[in-house]
Amino acid sequence: MMNICQISSREIGTDDQIALRRFVCCGHGAPSYTLDVQRYIRSLDLKNAIPGVYRMVLYCQGTSDIYGFCEFGYDDSLGPESGYAISFIAVGLEYQRHRLGHMLLDCVLRWISNDAAISGRNPYVATQIDAANAASIGLFSDMGFRDEGVDSYDPGYHIWSRTFTPVARDDLWLFQTVVF
108, 109, 103: which is closest to 91 by C-alpha? Predict the structure, then answer.
């Protein structure tokens, strides 16, 4: 049976707390890097906002389920020259392999580009990827990120980054029909 869904993106809200607790992005026996992400996402307390940290979700309109999650932002104490970081990105286990990760990362990059155009923040974004995480390496590589090499503070991970052109824009949110 095929399911047709209107996938949308938005910033996460406190009403998403229960859906976040139910979010499953990896199965039994998954590598530790995916289990760590799932544990982190499920442990979030959405009432405690952190300045400079944003969380975007993908969801199917008409449902409360979260299909994808991304945490990103900047450290305001470092000033606008510090650029941006993507801390976590995950797609629900049953929705993987439908390019939702690409859709979500594209939304986040549009948001970051718009913010850089408005704030003057450095148009640089980085993330940390476990060297064994082929799915994340493929996703970030497809989206123009390059491997800078081993993270000197955490040798099991590599730093992946890209620069971009800041563009003020109105198309910050995703509206895409997907067939599962």
Answer: 103
Q: Rounded mean pLDDT of 68-96?
A: 94
Share above pLDDT 70 across residues of the chain, in percent, rounded to a whole number? 99
| pTM for the whole structure | 0.94
Q: Please, which residues bridge with residue 178 across strands?
A: 5
d(CA 157, CA 126): 12
Residue 1: the pLDDT is 66
Angstrom distance (rounded) from CA 63 to CA 19: 10
Burial (CB count within 10 angstroms: exposed 0-12, middle 13-18, buried 19+), residue 36: middle
| Amino acid at the residue 90 | A
Q: What is the DSSP letter of 97?
A: T
* Positive or negative: CA dihedral 29, 134, 7, 180: negative
Report the alpha-carbon distance of residue 11 to residue 47 in Å, rounded: 14
State mean pLDDT over 101-129: 97
* DSSP 8-state assignment for residue 12: -
Interatomic CA distance for residues 10 and 177, integer angstroms: 16
